Fold each of these.
Amino acid sequence: MTPTLLALSLLALTVPQQAAPEADHPVIEKKTATTGGVTVHFLTIPWGPNTFAAMEHGGDSFYAKRTWPFARMETKVPVTLEATTLPPGNYALVFHPNTADNKGMSLEVRKILVEEFLVPGNVMTKTPEGETVSRSAAAFETVAETVPALALDLQAGGRGASLVIRYGDRKLAKELSF
């Protein structure tokens, strides 16, 4: 091997290679929605119909028993959700799977001390410790349009906003007053 070829071969080994995302492994990014003193951060987790079905219907599978911290909400003003007033602060939004007695999925709002728990690319983040300040039914409706990944939006209106959560062909809206 010539010295030039050897040098080029060694150079190729030391230059970091970036792999392009594969079509079947979409990039999971952190996104943000903001309105009126409320900001919601979430990850673009790809639609998993089987995983979501386990959460919706309950059962013995891993996903039917695991909480899903899907977003972090920062409030700079007091916000009312389901008759509970949340003081300004940092909160985890957590889905709980359907229960053994079939009461349905629920949405927990948990006051947290950690600044951030969402990590781009990590769809199975651990639910952060904190105080439960609200827990309400999370009855998703099935809609015609299927979004490819989790999407959240804050739609301003009236004296607050609607927090609209879309995941695959499911949709949930929760009213926030502030």
Amino acid sequence: MTTQTLVSSIACATLLAFSSAAQNAAPSSPGNLDITGIPAPMGVYYHAAGGWVGLSHTVLMPFWDGRPAALEVLNVGSDHTLIHLPGSHAGIEIGNDARPTFYLHGVSPADMHLVRLAQKGDYRELQMPVSRYFWDWAHFRAKDLTDFDIAGVNGDVVAIRPSADLKPGEYSLATVLGRDYERLRLGFEFGIVTVSAQR
């Protein structure tokens, strides 16, 4: 386990305690906004044919790959950071639903991004360019982002759906942890696969 993975795991366990199970998810009916039976805990959920499944989560904490700490403080020596997520695939893989609807239960859609992850063997990677302006710091690349539509459903439940079909691959719904944690983002992971490619 790398230092980055260990720090991210500790931060995730400390900041939030969501629960989710790894599983393959068959698609729900397109445009179905029925939230009957949605689990009570805060989280991001997908309504699969077999019921509700929660997306696993991790803290998306950017690191400079091998850069000395002194250079990190001075913000010199690199123009991007890397986030490594353990595992070659997310715990939930969605088959034959290229525009899945996700339900945010108690999770704010403000500053939410749908970002594509690069598969790198036994892990997934997200590269984030670094701004020279300290307060802007690391940000997502436009080519990794996908637009999505938002619809209020009921109470603290909001539905989001990609504006266009997603290509097969690995993704994360990323949101800031809050006003006091703008450099840390919580990522809810999922994969898009075809039925024949599901494991």
Amino acid sequence: MAPTPATVASIVGDQSTEAKLLKRAIVSDLAIYAQNQTSQNTDAYRDQVVTRLSRFDTLNSPEALDVLASLSGYYLGAPAEKLYHCLVLRKGAPLKEPLKYYLKDGSTECLKELGQDFSKPSGSLDGYPLCPTSQQEAERLKELILEIDAGRPCTDNDLVLMTRALAK
């Protein structure tokens, strides 16, 4: 049995390493689904992406928060977008500065890593591109920062209910 990013990272014991491995796995899965151009394999998508994204809830180092913030440069699909939103609210103020960084400078990582093909809408990602436009990313980041400032919560119960609902 091949090791998963989570098991490899837990062996290493470094939150930064675990966060980077989780992000790499999430982005790889999303790229495969985005290329599919259909809404097939949504169960596999939810199982893989949502489960990996939920692991960020236990990662609180500044480096892990930076990695979580960098995921704002990708469209994660409707189920994972809701989870991402909740995770950002749970992290709150410590995540605000990394989010502001991406709001100010934008993120070109997605296009650099994956190429222009991923700026086209994908049927498997709700008709959105994996690599959002700078305007889409800015709108998302502004909303998240405003909600952090307002102290909007995402409780343990919210997270559990959401994760269960998304993993079905």
